[in-house]
Amino acid sequence: MRRLISTLLLGFSILWIAACTSSPQKPSTTPLPAEQVKKLKSMQLKSSLPIPVQHVKAKQLKDTWGASRSSGRTHEGIDIMAPRGTKVFSATEGLIADLRNNNLGGKVVWIMGPGGSWHYYAHLDEHKRGLSVGDYVKKGDLIGYVGNTGNARHTAPHLHYGIYLDGKGRGVVNPYPYLR
Ligand SMILES: [Zn+2]
């Protein structure tokens, strides 16, 4: 009898797990407004972009592209050093596409910009208050504040800025030449 009960329980657990894993996955991000996505795709990313951190001048920038990182990774972006709380501005117009924290980047902002480009702003201390997925930002709009969240927690506060030309996380290029 006891064996029957435990067999039944095991059977139910397997069914329950199967039911959970086969349920449709929630979309990872809120769908973006189609009109604005279309408009952005028809535009071109400029070859020169404003430095996305307040008060930082081009001559202060260091090209940190390709520097080695933990677990054999190389650095996919530029680190722009600035005091904690310094304002971070969008380098392009675009749609706020993702605001979820991740282990490496900490508090981040993903922006879908012109011509299929995506822009990644990481290690933020805070997002701009009220910023939401689907918001349309102009070049130079405030999106957050410099910090050292994520894997930067043992380093000085800085903005990690990444540019991807072929969609989210795809077609990474060095942002440094864009910021001269
Ligand atoms: Zn970085």
Description:
The protein has one domain: Distorted Sandwich (Glucose Permease (Domain IIA)), CATH 2.70.70. Helix content is 17%, strand content 23%. The chain is built from two helices and ten strands. The chain has helices spanning 2-22, 34-42, and strands at residues 78-81, 87-89, 94-98, 107-112, 118-124, 126-127, 136-137, 142-145, 158-164, 172-173. The model is unreliable at 17-26 (pLDDT under 50). Residues 75, 77, 79, 160 line the site of zinc ion.
How would the blueprint of this fold be written?
Layout: H1 2-22, H2 34-42, E1 78-81, E2 87-89, E3 94-98, E4 107-112, E5 118-124, E6 126-127, E7 136-137, E8 142-145, E9 158-164, E10 172-173
Antiparallel strand pairs: 1-9, 2-8, 3-4, 3-7, 4-5, 5-9, 6-8, 9-10
The protein binds zinc ion.
Domain M23ase beta-sheet core: 74-168
Protein name: L-Ala--D-Glu endopeptidase
InterPro entries: Cell_wall_metabolism_enzyme (IPR050570), Dup_hybrid_motif (IPR011055), M23ase_b-sheet_dom (IPR016047)
Quick synopsis:
This protein is α+β, with helices and mostly antiparallel strands. It has two helices and ten strands.
Specify Rg, calculated over alpha carbons: 21 Å
Give the total of beta strands: 10
Mean pLDDT: 89
Can you tell me the residue ranges where pLDDT is under 50 for at least 5 consecutive residues? 17-26
What percentage of residues falls in helices of 4 or more residues?
A: 10-25%
Give the helices and strands as they follow along the chain. HHEEEEEEEEEE
What structural class do you assign from the helix and strand content?
A: alpha+beta
Biggest sheet layout: 7 strands, antiparallel
- CATH class membership: Mainly Beta
Multimeric state of these chains? Answer: single chain
CATH topology: Glucose Permease (Domain IIA)
Kindly estimate the percentage of residues that lie in beta strands according to DSSP.
15-25%
Q: CATH superfamily name? A: Glucose Permease (Domain IIA)
CATH architecture: Distorted Sandwich
Protein name: L-Ala--D-Glu endopeptidase
Organism: Acinetobacter bouvetii
Signal peptide: 1-18
EC number: 3.4.-.-
